[in-house]
Amino acid sequence: MINEPIADLLTRIRNGYMASLLEVNMPYSTLKEAILKVLAQFEFIDSYEVSGEKVKKEIKVVLAYNELGKPKITHIQKVSKPSLRKYTKSSEIGYVRGGFGIAIISTSKGIMAEQEARKLKIGGEVIAEVW
């Protein structure tokens, strides 16, 4: 049983890159799929694929490497934790690594990158930072 599915997702991706794997598999959830959609949109991962039915669904994540074989993600960390949630107003959304990274934010309009939240002028819970 996984107590913290977002931390599990980020850890599996981080460990996959550290082991130079081409893909990693994990149990499915709609929240994980939304986070992976943002990561794929900004090309931090190549793609993801959902397979299986009902309770036995899985997600296969294809990891992205540059032309030199280095991982496209050098740092991925969870910001908001169950014991300490981190929220931000739309006016206080900062830039991750001077715009070279992204923050994944859970808003009332769904999971999105901080650029889109800033454009829509909505805040929310900062889930993770990636660069």
Q: Identify low-pLDDT runs.
A: none
Along the chain, the helix and strand elements come as HEHEEEEEEHE
- Approximately how much beta-strand content do the residues carry? 25-35%
**Broad CATH class of the largest domain:** Alpha Beta
- Looking at the overall shape, the CATH architecture of the largest domain is 2-Layer Sandwich
**Shape call:** globular
Number of helices: 3
What's the total count of β strands? 8
Q: What portion of residues is helical?
A: 25-40%
Write down the CATH topology of the largest domain.
Ribosomal Protein S8, Chain: A, domain 1
Instruction: Kindly report the average pLDDT value.
Output: 95
How far do the termini sit from each other? 29 Å
CA gyration radius, whole angstroms: 15 Å
Task: Specify the biggest β-sheet.
Answer: 5 strands, antiparallel
Quickly give the structural class: alpha+beta
Taken together, the total number of domains comes to 2
Could you characterize what this model shows?
The radius of gyration is 15 Å and the shape is globular. 27% of the residues are buried. Strands 4, 5, 6, 7 and 8 form a 5-stranded antiparallel β-sheet that branches. A 3-stranded antiparallel β-sheet has the order 1-3-2, covered by helices on one side. Strand 2 and strand 3 form a beta hairpin. It has 2 domains: 59 residues, Ribosomal Protein S8, Chain: A, domain 1 (2-Layer Sandwich); 55 residues, Dna Ligase, domain 1, CATH 3.30.1490. With 131 residues, it is of the alpha+beta class. The chain is built from 3 helices and 8 strands; from the N terminus they run αβαββββββαβ. It starts with a helix and ends with a strand.
